[in-house]
């Protein structure tokens, strides 16, 4: 089962909590997600023990109503579910059964107000004490400073003391030592200011991560909860999970379509933005497919359910988007590994700052103790840890809003690094819907009639193109008998007692082409067209020149990709060279390769990967080997199962229009992560350099950490900002 956990705001402490939960009976499969705030556990696990483990680090469990009843949680405990504590990365964990009150940070609306209130009281108490300190007895103003510190930093001190008792050094421990040391040498004023600023820093940091999570949660709320099922004329409201294939549901204006299906009755326009990211409505009538999560605009629709909700495109998308939050990018993995060594190194550096000047340079012990304490505060790794995850979650969410499904942070990072993109032709740069572009007719009376008679029962794409042209002309068609398909060539059939051959040049091998026919064949080939010829026993009656229509947006997209820094765009196709050349020139790709088998496409992609970072775009079915061999597989396909399962990224619109935007967002995410890391380390380096002349103070130390943390959080959240078009 999946449960919501509040109060998680650091990846390392989340990992430690997960390990503790896994030690419980039935807890082996537990997964605790920092980015989404979700806990997945076996339903047989003891939730009371899970709650105690989470509480030890200031987090809390939000149980569904049914589980609350089963666990017999009383009203006081239900209130406590909304009370949780905000932590920093590398926080210590005391996983004993601790029932003491926990004044942690709750980043929900009510909890944030409570913390803001406490910080405001602390700040007023601090300001009042500082102003009137000269007229108060030392014992009295020291007591007020202590009270102000406890109001804003009690949970930090409590955890720090626990960790110190276990020789566990993290940011809570560092802050506790630093503040205790400052108090010991009589710097009560600065110690209190540091405690208040640290509390404010924790609040803002946690609110930033919660904002990114809530943005993702809002995206995931597009799924409808109930549906109106039609049973023998009777309407019944049922949960969507109970819908079965073949059920018929009623969807009224403004309601969401519960699952993938087909329009069985009615006519309306449908907003498919939840799936495709396209805001323009799509007209739907009888027999047309619809996606679960789409919104019916005006008419009443009867929908025949084709997939149970858990198998629908929307359910798969939402599941993959949630999973995407948990993949770690190489940058994140490096930061997490680096942070393990960062805090111990800071402690060693602080000890050296404290000892070396007095011992070797005859410095004052009290002054350099103060400098060492300030170094401990600079050692907080919060800004560094937050450099990546908020930006990654924001980037995945922003692209998902645009109908671009990215299956993980690692693929988002890779998308931003692409310099070469390989395209399949059919269905990617072209519509994958062949049409007759030219015809050459030698026998007007029989050509269209016989061709229509032979092709009307065929489901081949070229046959559909021929029939579309004949229907457009309104030519009456006859009946064909003895229809026989010849693999790789075409069809033979009998019409009005005469035998006919229809197909490519090989199918007409019983005839020798006249110069006129040979010239026409060569001309159509030079135009990059696929040929379908019709002949009887004595002569060629005519031929169709068939092309695949180029998508309207293809040329614009290719141009935009080149302008945005993609240095090579390569088209790979199985069609003959002239067809490939025609499409390549029309859309503007930098190079093309025709006549390729699937294994040839794989070889080409590997060849391209040797000189750059390659993304392969295809339909997710025929191009699966090439998609898998590229550093990044991108599938077309408006929510098809094969596309979602094959590629690393899926363009749900079934066109390339939003690909340049996705690449720009990915590059921006990568840029922001690099900027955040530089900012976090740069501010800390400047603060540490101030120790050389002995200028580093406690408030400068906390402001350098606080400023960096708030700054990287706000910069990361700007990724979510989207201009309305």
UniProtKB/TrEMBL annotation:
The chain crosses the membrane at residues 115-133, 139-157, 341-361, 373-397, 672-692, 698-721. InterPro entries: ATPase_P-typ_cyto_dom_N, ATPase_P-typ_P_site, ATPase_P-typ_TM_dom_sf, ATPase_P-typ_transduc_dom_A_sf, ATPase_P-type_domA, Cation_Transport_ATPase_IB, HAD-like_sf, HAD_sf. Residues 84-108 have a biased composition (Basic and acidic residues). It is an enzyme of class 7 (translocase). It is found in: Cell membrane. PROSITE patterns: ATPASE_E1_E2, COF_2. GO terms for cellular component: plasma membrane. Keywords: ATP-binding, Cadmium, Cell membrane, Ion transport, Membrane, Metal-binding, Nucleotide-binding, Phosphoprotein, Translocase, Transmembrane, Transmembrane helix, Transport. The keyword Aminoacyl-tRNA synthetase does not apply. It catalyses: Cd(2+)(in) + ATP + H2O = Cd(2+)(out) + ADP + phosphate + H(+). GO terms for molecular function: ATP binding; ATP hydrolysis activity; metal ion binding; P-type cadmium transporter activity. Its EC number is 7.2.2.21. PANTHER family: CADMIUM/ZINC-TRANSPORTING ATPASE HMA2-RELATED (PTHR48085), CADMIUM_ZINC-TRANSPORTING ATPASE HMA4-RELATED (PTHR48085:SF5). This is Cd(2+)-exporting ATPase. It comes from Cohnella zeiphila. The gene is cadA.
């Amino acid at each position: 089962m999946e449960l919501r956990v509040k109060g998680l705001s650091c990846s390392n402490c989340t990992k430690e909590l997960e390990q503790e939960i896994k030690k419980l009976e039935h807890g082996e499969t537990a997964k605790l997600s920092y980015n989404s705030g979700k806990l997945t556990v076996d339903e047989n696990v003891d939730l009371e023990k899970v709650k105690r483990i989470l509480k030890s680090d200031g987090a809390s469990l939000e149980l569904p109503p049914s589980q609350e009843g089963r666990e017999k949680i009383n009203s006081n405990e239900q209130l406590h579910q909304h009370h949780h504590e905000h932590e920093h990365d590398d926080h210590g964990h005391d996983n004993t059964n601790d029932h003491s009150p926990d004044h942690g940070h709750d980043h929900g609306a009510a909890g944030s107000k409570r913390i803001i209130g406490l910080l405001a009281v602390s700040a007023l108490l601090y300001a009042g004490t500082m102003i009137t300190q000269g007229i108060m007895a030392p014992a009295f103003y020291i007591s007020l400073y202590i009270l102000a510190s406890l109001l804003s930093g009690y949970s930090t001190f409590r955890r720090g003391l626990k960790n110190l008792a276990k020789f566990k050094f993290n940011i809570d421990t560092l802050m506790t030592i630093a503040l205790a040391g400052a108090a010991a040498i009589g710097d009560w004023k600065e110690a209190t200011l540091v405690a208040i600023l640290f509390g404010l820093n924790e609040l803002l940091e946690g609110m930033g991560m919660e904002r990114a999570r809530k943005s993702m949660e809002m995206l995931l709320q597009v799924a409808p909860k109930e549906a109106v099922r039609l049973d023998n004329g009777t309407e019944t409201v049922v949960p969507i999970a109970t819908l079965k294939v073949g059920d018929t549901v009623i969807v009224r204006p403004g309601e969401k379509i519960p699952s993938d299906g087909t329009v069985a009755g009615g006519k309306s326009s449908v907003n498919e933005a939840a799936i495709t990211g396209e805001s323009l409505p799509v007209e739907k009538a009888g027999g047309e497919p619809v996606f679960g999560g789409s919104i019916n605009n005006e008419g009443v629709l009867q929908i025949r359910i084709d997939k149970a909700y858990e198998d629908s495109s929307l359910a798969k998308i939402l599941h993959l988007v949630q999973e995407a939050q948990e993949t770690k990018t190489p940058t994140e993995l490096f930061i997490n590994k680096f942070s393990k060594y960062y805090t111990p190194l800071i402690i060693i550096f602080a000890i050296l700052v404290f000892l070396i000047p007095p011992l070797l340079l005859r410095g004052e012990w009290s002054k350099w103790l103060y400098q060492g304490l300030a170094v401990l505060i600079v050692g907080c790794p919060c800004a560094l840890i937050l450099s990546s995850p908020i930006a990654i979650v924001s980037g995945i969410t922003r692209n998902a809003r645009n109908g671009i499904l990215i299956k993980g942070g690692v693929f988002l990072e890779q998308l931003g690094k692409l310099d070469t993109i390989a395209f399949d032709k059919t269905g990617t740069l072209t519509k994958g819907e062949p049409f007759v572009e030219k015809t050459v007719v030698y026998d007007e009376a029989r050509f269209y009639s016989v061709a229509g008679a032979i092709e009307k029962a065929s489901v081949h794409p070229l046959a559909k193109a021929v029939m579309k042209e004949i229907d457009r002309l309104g030519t009456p068609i006859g009946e064909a008998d003895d229809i026989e398909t010849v693999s790789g060539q075409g069809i033979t059939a009998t019409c009005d007692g005469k035998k006919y051959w229809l197909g490519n040049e090989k199918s007409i091998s019983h005839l020798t082409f006249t110069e006129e026919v040979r010239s026409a064949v060569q001309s159509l080939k030079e135009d990059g067209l696929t040929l379908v010829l019709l002949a009887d026993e004595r002569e060629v009656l005519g031929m169709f020149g068939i092309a695949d229509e180029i998508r309207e947006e293809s040329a614009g997209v290719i141009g935009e990709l080149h302008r945005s820094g993609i240095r090579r765009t390569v088209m790979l196709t199985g069609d003959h060279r002239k067809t490939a050349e025609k499409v390549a020139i029309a859309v503007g790709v930098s190079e093309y390769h025709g006549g390729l088998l699937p294994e040839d496409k794989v070889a080409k992609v590997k060849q391209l990967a040797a000189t750059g970072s390659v993304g392969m775009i295809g339909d997710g079915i025929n191009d699966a080997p090439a998609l898998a061999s590229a550093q990044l597989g991108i599938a077309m396909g408006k929510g098809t199962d094969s596309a979602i399962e094959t590629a690393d990224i899926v363009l749900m619109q079934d066109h390339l229009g939003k690909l340049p935007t996705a690449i720009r967002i990915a590059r921006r995410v990568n840029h922001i992560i690099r900027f955040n890391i530089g900012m976090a380390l740069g501010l800390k380096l400047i603060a540490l350099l101030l120790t050389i002349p002995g200028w580093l103070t406690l408030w400068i130390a906390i402001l350098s950490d606080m400023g960096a943390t708030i700054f990287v959080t706000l910069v990361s959240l700007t990724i979510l900002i989207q201009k309305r078009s």
